[in-house]
Design a protein that fits this description.
Blueprint lengths: L8 E9 L12 H14 L1 H11 L4 E10 L2 E8 L6 H6 L1 H10 L1 E8 L12 E4 L1 H5 L4 H8 L3 H12 L5 H11 L7 H8 L6 H10 L3 E9 H11 L3 E5 L1 E4 L9 E6 L8 H14 L7 E5 L5 H6 L2 E5 L3 H6 L2 E3 L7 H5 L8
Parallel strand pairs: 5-6, 5-10, 6-7, 10-11, 11-12
Antiparallel strand pairs: 1-3, 1-4, 2-3, 8-9
Helix pairs in contact: 6-7, 7-8
Amino acid sequence: MSVKDGNNARLIVTFFVKSRPSNTSSNATPQGQDSFRSQSMACGPNFSQLLAPRVAPASLTLDNYHTLAPGIFQSVYSISTPFPKPEKLRHHTSITAFEALHVLEIIFDLIPSPPPDRLRPVRLAVFDMDSTLINEEVIDELARSIGITSAVSAITARAMNGEIEFEQSLRERLRLLKGVKADVWEDLKKSVTIAAGAKELVTYLRGRGVITVVVSGGFAPMALWLKDQLGLDHAFANHLIVFPSNAAYPYPHLSGDLSPEYPIVTPEYKRQVLESMAQEHSIPLSETLVVGDGSNDLLMLGAAGLGIAWRAKERVQKEAPQRLNGTTLSDLIYVLDGWEGRSS
């Protein structure tokens, strides 16, 4: 995301203490409050002194600093141009050292033209499914149903860490699933769990009129089910070929291959969904949010106005524009829900 010289931009810096309560509306212990006060002091004007050299030659003015919830703080800066990309700030060694010292994580977000309502401009939100909106990896759950968990999980882990190409890993895993009953999805729907805070986050986004999408390297029956569960607008996922009963398998079953009638959901396709949906609805990419956890999400994370790796794999943590490791997706509302005029 770039900002032209002369624009009145805001840099929003949100600090998440790693030991914050999982329910941010709950009261912290006295010891926790003391810890948060200490970290809050470090994250205010003191952090500004650390940040200023990182954005030079741009000028930086701290407009507001406040506590959003126990262990969650936010600084609002006016900033001139030229300006480094937020992801470069996040990866700077001085910033990562500050995070380690104070046991917290920081999300940097640049707002080129702040709107009057002071809400983070977002009109399209695209989510990964497995280990993001749901807690499980569906293909691993499928493998468990036929007793080949170890073999499939090993391939999944290599793919999510970027050790093998996603399409190759998908086809290798699918071959191992040949013969699984075609109605296996009904059992999976009973065992799969929606991630904490997912419903709250989607409800918040839909309340703002944001178009919500799940795009998954998993499978269409589960993605469509999740779409209905969360009230998402669109779902994109892989389609499997189902064979009828035969001598080897006397019941409708998975073929072990993908349907050629639908595109394979590769990292490139995920980014394409983001870009095509934005274009279709005349939404600039700067007003998009992407949340995912795997290496196959990196392309769409990088293309988004705000790309956040959520509880991501190690490689993704290192390469994603922004990252957050929390216990509830509703934490992301604090990044989106405006900044000025709050009480500390």
